[in-house]
Amino acid sequence: MSLKGTLASRRGFLVSVGVGALGGLAGCLGDGNDTGDPATTRDENGQQETNTPDQVVKTAPSDSTPRDTPTQTATPSGSLSPPFRSESGTTNYGIELAGNPVIANTSDPAVDIYYWSDYQCAYCKQFEVSDHGGFPKLIRNDVADGTVRIVLLHYPNYGQHSWTADVMATCLWNRVKDDRPDRFWEWHRTVFENQQLDGEEWSSRSSLLGYARDIDGIDADALDQCMKQNRKQHETEIKQERKRARNEGFSDTPGFVLYHPKSEQTTSFFGAQPYSTFKQQIDAYRNL
């Protein structure tokens, strides 16, 4: 597909189930690889065997409004320290918790938010590190008071660098989840803050490891070794999360499913949603 055709296809869409529809903003449409397979193959040490170029977000859709358009210098959301938890088991909605970062103050929330993202998606960055996005206020308000639990899920959508970032994130979470989950957050936030709309060096394996080396408490050499030894296993797990996102109707990122355990109702939507969108639905579930 031509660049023009690719950009034209990156329009916002809405999927709504159970409860009334919610407005969607523009999101990041990926490389069209419906199989969920990484763009390249590797040897047993995780080294690339073929040389398929990565696909990265180049710009926002031409039909986006200015508020919807991500920039390379998104306004920082300020100091944010999400309460990460390591949980196991499967939710009633069928989401695996083991191995996935969970942001919550309780294991029995009123509302679950299942959040699929891609480290190369500019709208995921906007959602997380910009005051225009809903993530910071969700953490400070609804996670803080025990209403919401957010489960971070993988949806690699832009070629090999996306898969590398997700595998590294999995390795890192598994290493720090019990003792220093804040170290995962520091790396996660750093990747998004370094995201660029043009160029690929920022998301290369060496750059991603470099961010880890700059964070006290992360053994980057051990992280690199995990990447080499466990990449195939983690990619298999990530494929399942990506497949689940596509089954939910998401071809773009970020994608969200809000699940109300008490009523088993769900609402799904996508894009760099403002806090008001989440708050409206959370309040509606509270009143059920």
Automatic annotation (TrEMBL):
Q: Where is the Thioredoxin-like fold domain positioned along the sequence? A: 110-265
Q: Where is this region: Disordered?
A: 33-92
Q: Does the keyword Chloroplast apply?
A: no
InterPro entries, per the entry: Thioredoxin-like_fold, Thioredoxin-like_sf
* Polar residues compositional bias, start-end: 61-80
Instruction: Please give the superkingdom of this protein's source.
Output: Archaea
Q: Which UniProt keywords apply?
A: Disulfide bond, Electron transport, Oxidoreductase, Redox-active center, Signal, Transport
* Molecular-function annotations in GO: oxidoreductase activity
The record's section on Pfam families has: Thioredoxin_4
- Family named by the database record: Belongs to the thioredoxin family. DsbA subfamily. Belongs to the glutaredoxin family.
Q: Please state what the protein is called.
A: DsbA family protein
